[in-house]
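Reviewers of the previous submission asked for a worked example of the structure-prediction workflow described in the proposal, so we include one complete record here. The input consisted solely of the amino acid sequence. No template or homolog information was supplied to the procedure at any stage.
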Amino acid sequence: MIQEMVMAEVTAFMRSRIVLTAAELDLFTYLDGKPGTASGLAHERGLDVRATTRILDCLCVMELLAKTDDIYRVTAKGVFLSSHHPETVLPMVLHMTHVWHAWSGLTEIVRKGSGSQPEPGLKFSEKDWKAFVEAMHVAARVLSKEIAESYNASRYNRLLDVGGASGTYTMAFLRKNPSLKAIILDLEDVIPLAEERVRDEGFSDRVEFIAGDFYKDELPTGCDIALLSAIIHQNSPEENLNLYGKVFRALEKGGTILIRDHIMNEDRTKPPAGALFAINMLVNTRGGDTYIFREVKDSLESAGFRNVRLLRIGDKMDCLVEAKKP
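From that input alone, the workflow returned the following structure tokens.
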């Protein structure tokens, strides 16, 4: 029994790889709009019939598809992998294909001690940046509302969202706090994606967009709260200390820095998702990691912040750390 449990863990990648391939080929979107046979799908999409059939049958085993008289259709579970669904997770799954390739080098990284990433942060092609930003939006759709509801930001006037991606967290805070305005700072390739989403959500009159690289540039001033949402895990301790210093200099006197991320327990085994995410940063960044509260607190205090508090402990990158600029 124990051996079977161990082997189930070892072979779990097989199921993941099948779903990732189906997502890359956009099979769920195709079948969501047009149930059909494997041969019909393969011919229309330019795929091998035998291989396509085997993939579709495995997706039926996973209950992502259903099969009746050789006709495949998307199930209520699989429909979330279709781009047609308003709550699709397809962008995140497509991002996982990028992660898959990075993780395949884990053995060599463990031997050598670090990955091949020469620069700080996450690096993508223009196409992959868009996929990554869309994936982060999928991950944030529900959690951003939960975070904004849990934190009292009503006393603040202007939010600086550092590396704010498509603005999902900015907009969650703006919805919760009608008098709040915001600045979204991100890379030049990302800002148009943020502008489009913010415009579509009707917040353009409350958001300013600034293109910049927080590794290289000083941060915009004039804000009394700064949000680092899912940022510190992609940085080394030295990079975080440097970033905290930039936030400290940018904030108004009496301002607040708010960090959302995995915050690990002292032995770094909980939350479990945080332990796995540390490996994700090991293979995808130059020096990224997940951190315990003491490490975050010490770095924030070294940058000049005071009253560092762990406000929220969670298991899905939903921990919150707050600190004040005197």
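Residues 30 and 324 are 51 Å apart (CA to CA). We consider this example representative of the routine output the project will generate in years two and three.
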